[in-house]
Amino acid sequence: MQKKNLLLFTPGPLQVSERVLEALRNGNLMHREEAFSALFSNLQSKLLNAFEVNEEYAACLFTSTGRGINEAMVAPFAKNRKLAVITNGAWGTDLLQIARLHGQNVMELKFSEKEAVEPGQVAEFLKQNPQIDSLALVHQETRTGILNPLEKIASAAAANGVTLLVDAMSSIIAEETNFQKLGVAFFTCGSTKGLRSIPGIGIICGKKEEFEKLSRFVPTSHYFDIFSEYESQVKNKKMRFAQPTPIFAALNESLSELLEEGLQQRRESISQRTADFRNWAVSNGIEIDGVASTLGHVITNFKLPSKIKYSVFSHELQKLGIYLLYGGEKDENTFQVSFFGAFSENDIAFLKKTLISILK
Ligand SMILES: Cc1ncc(COP(=O)(O)O)c(C=O)c1O
Predict the structure, then answer these.
(1) C-alpha to C-alpha distance for 335 and 212, rounded to whole angstroms
(2) For helices 345-359 and 310-320, what crossing angle results, to 10°?
(3) pLDDT digit string, tens, across residues 195-208
(4) Which residue in 58, 128, 203, 238 is deepest, having the highest Cβ count within 10 Å?
(5) Do residues 125 and 160 touch, judged by C-beta distance below 8 A?
(6) Ligand 1: distance of its center to the CA of 294 in Å?
């Protein structure tokens, strides 16, 4: 008997539409056949539309989850330039650790995990450390839902002539990003979260002139060499290596779905669902864990009543058909709800009903 999948109110893997699953089922192409080349070039131009950047930028795709593509982005800067990483949570710390593997002198500008990055301190840090020529940060910390104030951080970077590298894993699509206007050199994301597809593709989007500059750097990896892949994908319109084509077909379909719906419409619908759910939770005595003004519009952590621990709560939820993450790794006192996925109104009503039945 076929098992019904859990409803995933998670940042990724997440709930994808039937249409995306159908594309996945039909996507077993040969990666050198013409149909895949056409799909690939279609995919690249749809990505630029979805990211709201023009031809000044290019998007390169890798078979990888988020960490892999983050490594591809920061490693050349950690090895060849003077990089600093801003941290205010688990994913910033992860980015720092990855960078330090490639360059021991990578600096850290650390903030509390409970607060958004403070742009004034970034400006001061860059003034005090004029040797720093590149700066990496996570736009939205997925574990806490804190959205960092990128606009002001980007202007501090620009004022100091610093190249900005952004992990946009959980901000892309769900939040207003304006990366081109802000002059972001490179940003990364994966095929789940805002792109609402199956995991397995890591995407780096950057200014073409910044990709070109990488030709002067010592490569840090054969597979994750973003300059060679840029040359191949953007100039020669093909990927260097064999690819799992079904996940590319799925992403291509989820982008069609997104662009048909409209970026603004998708963003508003995510934001509305989040706001409604926060209001519903608070009115049912479920407290938000975090400072509301620092949160973005898609992820929320909530406090569990003291009588129930996350591991028990999660087990009960899974039995009833839902998966929710913890608010922090090994944190038994919180849970997280995010609205990246393709949910029906019935799914959301079922989530509320199930939460009431477990938490009552
Ligand atoms: C902000 C952020 N960066 C990096 C990652 C790592 O991505 P992955 O788990 O796909 O390797 C995640 C994962 O959720 C994330 O939320």
Answers:
(1) 43
(2) 130
(3) 999 999 999 999 99
(4) 203
(5) no
(6) 20
- Residue 20 tokens, joined: 């995306």
Listed residue (235, 223, 232) closest to 75, CA to CA:
223
Q: Determine whether the shortest distance from the Cβ of 71 to ligand 1 is under 6 A.
A: no
Ligand 1, atom 12, lies closest to the CA of 66
Cα–Cα distance, 345 to 7 (Å, whole number): 13
Distance 91 CA to ligand 1 centre (A): 7
Residue 338 Cβ < 6 Å to ligand 1: no
Report which of 69, 267, 288 is spatially closest to residue 171, judged by C-alpha positions.
Answer: 267
Is 91 touching ligand 1 by the criterion CB < 6 Å?
Answer: yes
> What is the value of pTM for the model shown?
0.97
Give the containing element (helix H, strand E) for 274: helix 263-283
- Pocket flag, ligand 1, residue 169 (CB < 6 Å): yes
Q: How does pLDDT run across 85-125, given as a tens digit for each residue?
A: 999 999 999 999 999 999 999 999 999 999 999 999 999 99
CA of 169 to the centre of ligand 1 (A): 6
Is 60 exceeded by the pLDDT of residue 189?
A: yes
- Mutate which of 67, 146, 340 for ligand 1 pocket (most atoms within 8 A of beta carbon): 67
pLDDT in tens, 240-270: 999 999 999 999 999 999 999 999 999 999 9
Q: Which residues contact 341 (CB under 8 A, 6 or more apart)?
A: 8, 9, 10, 14, 15, 16, 196
Residue nearest to atom 5 of ligand 1 (CA): 66
Q: What is the number of the ligand 1 atom nearest to the C-alpha of 192?
A: 10
Distance, CA 66 to ligand 1 centroid (Å)? 5
CATH match for 19-259 among 3.30.70.260, 3.90.199.10, 3.40.640.10, 3.40.50.300:
3.40.640.10
